[in-house]
Amino acid sequence: MPENISHPLVVSPHFDDAVFSCGAFIAAHPGSVVHTVFSGCPAEDVTTDWDQHCGFTNAAEAMRERACEDDFALEILGAVAERGDFLDAQYAPYGTAPTVESIASKLGVAVRLHAARTLLVPLGLFHSDHELVHRACIDVWNASPALMCFAYEDALYRRMSGLLQARLADLAARGISATPEPGHWRANQHDQALKREAVKAYASQLKAFGPEGYDDVFCTERCWKLELAK
Prior knowledge:
This is LmbE family N-acetylglucosaminyl deacetylase. This protein has 230 residues and is α/β, with parallel strands linked by helices. It has a single domain, classed as LmbE-like (Rossmann fold, 3-Layer(aba) Sandwich), CATH 3.40.50.10320. The protein contains 8 helices and 7 strands, in the order βαβααβαβαβαβααβ. Strands 3-2-1-4-5-7-6 form a 7-stranded mixed beta sheet, sandwiched between helices. Helix 1 packs parallel to helix 3 (59-77) and helix 4 (100-113) packs across helix 5.
């Protein structure tokens, strides 16, 4: 695991993203705060294709159950749940679209509230919500240079051709170096077992992915240490 990790704030775009991508890291650092950005529910009676695939009749039922799943998963890992309450992309027509600035503002409050010293953020691959969160996290980190920042590879999306390379190139173009942390990111068997149990908590999402659709979450977790290029 990375050295000198303390008071980590782990940023998750949706319920499940942080656990799927770095659940073993969270297990190794009890007391980590997991801030889920897109945890809000539209006020209108809304039904989406994804929610139906997950077995829900409407968004209210989906978000209520998904929050319960997330609470259970984070309890297994010894983490603290915090919610950002923005609407995710599938509910975009039914509320105010979040911006990088509005997400960064709420994350900045979380950093100060929890006296975070380490920020663990998504690389922001493929999904528009993940991209928004990544950009907001980079802004928060730039505003708090004392924070150590690690970017985790978004589970499932990291397998898509060229996305990881494109993000690393984008970071370099913005003057940010990304150094892989292979030597410190290996989880022990205990932490891996806790992650497996936590992943099972997201029953609705696993149902939609299908039995062969989420095997990547059990592969080696990988992250990159972010630093301003010299």
